[in-house]
Amino acid sequence: MTAVSQTVPLSRTSVQGDTVPMVSIRGVGKSFGTNEVLRDIDLTVNKSEVVCLIGPSGSGKSTLLRCINFLEVYDRGEIRIEGRLVGYSEDTPRRRLSNRDLRSLRRNVGMVFQQFNLWPHMTALENVAEALVQVRGMDKAAATSHARRMLDRVGLAAKADSYPARLSGGQQQRVAIARVIAMEPHLMLFDEPTSALDPELVGEVLQVMRDLAADGMTMVVVTHEMGFAANVADKVAFLDRGRIAAFGTPREVFHESTEPRVQQFLQTYHERNSF
Amino acid sequence: MLDLSLLVQYGPALLRGFGVTILCWGAGCLIGMVLGFALMLLRQLPVKPLRWVIRAYIEVIRGTPFLIQLFLLYSGGPSIGLRLEATTAGILGLGIYGSAYFAEIFRAGYQAVPKGQVEAALSLGMSYGSILRRVIVPAMLVSTIPAIVNMMAILTKETVVLSIITVPELMYEMQTMAAETFATFETILGMALFYWLLVEVVSRLGRRLEARVTRFLTHASPQGSSSETATARA
After folding, report:
1. Do residue B217 and residue A130 have CB atoms under 8 angstroms apart?
2. How many domains does chain B have?
3. Mind telling me which residue stretches traverse the membrane in this protein (chain B) (predicted)?
4. What is the value of ipTM here, to two decimals?
């Protein structure tokens, strides 16, 4: 402990003590053919932190996010969640994890998608209860009552028996969030959760995400909602052409960064949002 | 003169034949679908030789007349030690014939399952078996029911070919009737009625089934039925 107290912390979250970071990304790279979409990414997400990934489209934000739960395969470097190497075996380099090991890793990592991806043939309640039965092995009655509480938590108890086609985009996304938090994940990944929503529905989803952050959920959020990033995030990473071009607190990135690409991106954003 | 009383006189035999037709058709469809689904799944495995073999199987079955396949199975079978009773051979033949088409229908359905729905299940830690059962197959039902019903309707009419290997189904009984009475027109008319009846029942049940599996889509996006996936007969 003395060693820690003697160093001058660069920022408050760089003091880690002896805890393992929730997500640790080291030198990660990925190519689609000759197109290098991620280059030498380093990023650490500590427990209970909210990290927003921002940047122009095609900068690799979503790809990076999808590498964290191995929906996308990364080619170089390593990603660890709570110390466990994602997607590859610890002993044999570059040997893929078995499906069983991958599943046990993914159980603790929830993901919310831009297109909600609810299962259309199941009601809201069934959507939330499904993985509780299939993955956590709960019996149907217990899963259903747990699922009901989760829907209540996102303010949708009244819609439990509705099919997704009967719900608005904002409601569908909240069901998708309930489906994830029902599994009690250690980490949640959000892939542009509000980008497919009508503007008037964005607020309700962001509110649920704010509540989660306030409850101490560790979150990595790819977003174009600069307001959310500025107000809720502990850290913001600005990606450009597969690299992290700027990283720091929202203040550091939005107001103090001298990186021209960040400046340009924010200016475009402001122009588009003023009329 | 048209003598419809013949149809009454031969009624019991015709009904028995109709029963055999329905049995062969039902069992053939079932075998065809199970086999077709299995072929579709095996085709998803990343094993190239297996894919080629399955593709060749589908091409051969679709590219040759059912009559020839049936002869090969029934008359050619014994020369490789496969001795089948006529009805068994008929059912198996229909099943094999149907499997190639069903495999293609299911493949189209499998590919049409929105990737995001599978990714959502993966990200929750669901196993492939669970995802197949709980996500993929229900989604496939929606997109493939019209094509499945279409194929089943086609197979009702393929059953007539079984008469050639002496399966005592409707066509066979009708030919007997025609041979004994020389009432060709009545025979053909009666036969057309029976098959029309069967196809009508099949398509009505199909429409009901379609309504049943798509009921959750009421007021929904353009995800619904796609009868274009119906694979036309080669």
Report:
1. no
2. 1
3. 20-42, 54-74, 86-106, 135-156, 176-198
4. 0.87
